[in-house]
UniProtKB/TrEMBL annotation:
InterPro entries noted in UniProt: AmpC-like, Beta-lactam-related, Beta-lactam/transpept-like
Domain of life assignment: Bacteria
The protein, known as: Class A beta-lactamase-related serine hydrolase
This protein's record includes keyword Hydrolase: yes
Length: 375
């Protein structure tokens, strides 16, 4: 009898050990499959990126991919500077141009949360030194390029006047309106100049200091903060040289100048991983406390007739600083910068993607679908 009891206990112990071993094997198998899938996805992304760089002649590219609030892939390829054959690395900063507008959108929504401003407020409630015809435009219309206010930049993205900012501003103040506020979409930098002034007035800081304190320092973005808002004017360590082919088939150095008031529209530089961290913070109630604030950022501002508009093609709406693509009820927020940088948020799948290049005309947004599907 005693021996039977001992055998029974031994068998139970063996069964438990076997179950534990099987469970561990199952876990290890799942992890190995997951690791294999991740490795395969990363390989697919890398192949596509390198192929696209070769196709477009892109000197350098940085990429970071976020899945469920974690950076799951990040890498840097190519040359930060062609003249000196300097390789780019993960700390190299790239100009992000109009992606700066997304930071301005967050800054504005932070002030909305503080109840210092409403998106339905008009310019006339804050400024009396602008034409009366400008004062009817709402804050939301400025952010979504629906104000009809004349642009401070010309069709070649240069200041309206070659004689400095003061001359440019004077010419803009007397220029004809493009259309009545809310009647249509037309990409416009003047609205962001005025939003920069508004942020400074309401926060008591320059818009640069406000964004640096409330976003860059909060998320820990030291490379972005060090680069500042005046790219191409200052000497920034480990920064990618900009190139272009817009003026012809040969690669040329890219020269851009953004006067200080226009830096809300296009002044920043950053790295892919720091931008990825910023996107994680944005979607984790770190930068904005109220869930409806993030929803507002990613909701198209409506025109007077109730429709939405943006650049055309997949971009059929513009939120608070963010171009939007709304397809089959699903919204993707895609911030574009200088025809060479992009960051996208896919709320439905928990994926965010950042791709930075140093080639104007690199159009890295064309990689988004392939990268998203690989993850």
């Amino acid at each position: 009898m005693l021996s039977e009891i001992l055998v029974h206990k031994w068998m139970k112990t063996e069964m438990k050990l076997t179950l534990i071993k099987l469970s561990l094997l199952a876990i290890l198998f799942c992890y190995s499959i997951l690791g294999w899938n991740n490795a395969f996805a990363h390989e697919q992304i890398e192949k596509r990126v390198l192929s696209y760089m070769q196709e477009k002649g892109i000197p350098a590219l940085q990429i970071a991919v976020v899945k469920n609030s974690k950076i799951v892939f990040a890498n840097t390829y190519g040359k930060a500077d062609l003249s000196f054959e300097v390789a780019a690395n993960d700390d190299t900063v790239f100009a992000i141009n109009s992606m700066t507008k997304a930071f301005v959108g967050v800054a504005l929504m932070q002030l909305v949360e503080q109840k210092k401003v409403r998106l339905t407020d008009t310019l006339g409630q804050y400024f009396d030194d602008i034409p009366a015809t400008w004062q009817r435009a709402t804050i939301a219309q400025l952010m979504a390029h629906q104000s009809g206010i004349p642009d401070v930049m010309d069709d070649m993205a240069r200041p309206r006047s070659p004689y400095g900012w003061e001359s440019t501003w004077r010419e803009t103040l007397v220029a004809d309106r493009e259309f009545e506020e809310g009647e249509q979409f037309n990409y416009n930098q003047t609205g962001y100049v005025l939003i920069g002034r508004l942020i400074s007035r309401l926060s008591g800081q320059s818009f640069q200091d406000f964004i640096t304190e409330k976003q860059l320092q909060k998320v820990s973005m030291p490379r972005t903060a060090a680069a500042g808002f005046n790219h191409y004017a200052g000497i920034i360590s480990n920064s990618a040289t900009g190139y272009t082919r817009f003026s012809g088939p040969e690669m040329q150095r890219l020269w851009e100048a953004f006067p200080e008031p226009v830096q809300t529209a296009a002044g920043m530089q950053s790295t892919a991983t720091e931008l990825a961290s910023w996107l994680i913070a944005l979607q984790s109630n770190v930068l904005l406390k109220e869930p409806k604030s993030l929803q507002t950022l990613f909701t198209p501002v409506k025109l007077n007739n109730g429709s939405t508009a943006a650049f055309g093609g997949p971009f059929n709406g513009y939120g608070i600083g963010w171009p939007l693509s709304v397809q089959e009820g699903k919204t993707t927020a895609i911030a574009l910068g200088g025809a060479r940088s992009v960051m996208a948020v896919y709320p439905e799948t928990g994926v965010s993607i950042v791709i930075l290049t140093n080639l104007q005309g690199g159009f890295p947004e064309r990689l988004l679908t392939d990268v998203h599907d690989a993850i």
